């Protein structure tokens, strides 16, 4: 026999097509409660509407709240225990304040949960910095005084490392979008030219939702090291990219001359 117990938690969230005042009236009729109690339900804090419920009972509460125009969550009650006859002798106090969950820990490349701005900038910059270093190394080996690898291999390495960096960043983008309150499917924008640049700026700079949102709880605040890396790594990536461009400018000139039939302007 399943002895797992559940609790129904309400956080004041209503359906987008419902007016809050009408939902409050529906809650008044549903719970037969006084206005102060209803206002407390819509304070924005997680409130336990009912607890010590079987799963089927919790679903009935969820359906009733949904019909009233609001949204709730069903959570497993911890620790679970076996209900006895003694439980029925004590009135369960309704609408007890739910203690918020602890901030979620950071799993860098998981697509579940949320990711704050500082962590996103740090991990994304690290991915692209590694790609820039590998690409630059390939071009140095291909264009040095003694070519170790053909230029074709350097081109393949550059394209491959860029694609790998983008693919590695997709789980990070999904969690960052969750933190802002958007669907992870928007991460596909990163694969489209031109629009991906303002898109990355948006998700990197937009503040996340405070507290719990439909995608989970907020992440733990960044450490001092992560905060410093969020500043240093983007600068290193920009510097490494510029050095790679300068080091291979002669190759860029040759490609432009081949493409447009005229010499490229000299590097100043």
Model description:
This is DUF805 domain-containing protein. It holds the Pfam family DUF805. InterPro entries: DUF805 (IPR008523). Keywords: Membrane, Transmembrane, Transmembrane helix. The chain crosses the membrane at residues 120-142, 148-172, 184-205, 225-247. This protein is of the alpha+beta class. It has two domains: 6-97; 117-260, no CATH class. It contains eight helices and four strands. The protein has a four-stranded antiparallel beta sheet with strand order 3-1-2-4, covered by helices on one side. Helix 4 runs parallel beside helix 7.
Quick rundown:
The chain is of the alpha+beta class. Helices cover 50% and strands 9% of the residues.
Listing every helix as H and every strand as E from the N terminus to the C terminus, the arrangement reads: EHHEHEEHHHHH
How far apart are the termini?
79 Å
- Mean pLDDT, rounded to whole units? 77
Rg (CA only): 27 Å
Uncertain stretches of 5 or more adjacent residues: 80-98
Instruction: Give the amount of beta strand, in percent.
Output: 5-15%
Number of helices: 8
Major beta sheet, specifics?
A: 4 strands, antiparallel
Shape: elongated
Based on secondary structure, the structural category is: alpha+beta
Helical content, roughly? 40-55%
Strand tally: 4
Organism: Kistimonas scapharcae
Pfam family, one: DUF805
InterPro entries: DUF805
Keywords: Membrane, Transmembrane, Transmembrane helix
């Amino acid at each position: 026999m399943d002895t797992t117990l559940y609790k129904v938690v309400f956080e004041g969230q209503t359906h987008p097509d419902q007016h809050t005042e009408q939902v409050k009236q529906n809650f008044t009729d549903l719970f037969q409660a006084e206005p102060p109690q209803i206002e407390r339900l819509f304070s924005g804090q997680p409130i336990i509407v009912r607890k010590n419920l079987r799963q089927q009972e919790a679903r009935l509460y969820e359906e009733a709240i949904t019909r009233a125009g609001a949204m709730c969550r069903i959570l497993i009650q911890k620790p679970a225990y076996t209900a006895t006859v003694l439980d029925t002798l004590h009135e369960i106090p309704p609408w007890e304040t739910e203690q918020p969950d602890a901030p979620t820990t950071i799993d860098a490349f998981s697509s579940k949960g949320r990711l704050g701005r500082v962590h996103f900038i740090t991990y994304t910059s690290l991915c692209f910095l590694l790609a820039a270093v590998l690409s630059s190394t390939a071009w140095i080996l291909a264009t040095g005084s003694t070519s170790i690898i053909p230029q074709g291999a350097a081109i393949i390495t550059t394209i491959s490392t860029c694609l790998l960096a983008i693919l590695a960043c997709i789980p990070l983008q999904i969690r960052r979008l969750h933190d802002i309150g958007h669907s992870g499917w928007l991460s596909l924008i990163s694969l489209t030219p031109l629009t991906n640049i303002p898109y990355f700026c948006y998700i990197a700079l937009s503040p996340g939702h405070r507290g719990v949102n439909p995608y989970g709880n907020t992440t733990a605040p960044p450490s001092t090291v992560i905060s410093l890396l969020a500043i240093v790594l983007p600068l290193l990536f920009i510097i490494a990219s510029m050095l790679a461009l300068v080091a291979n400018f002669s190759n860029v000139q040759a490609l432009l001359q081949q493409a447009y039939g005229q010499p490229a302007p000299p590097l100043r």
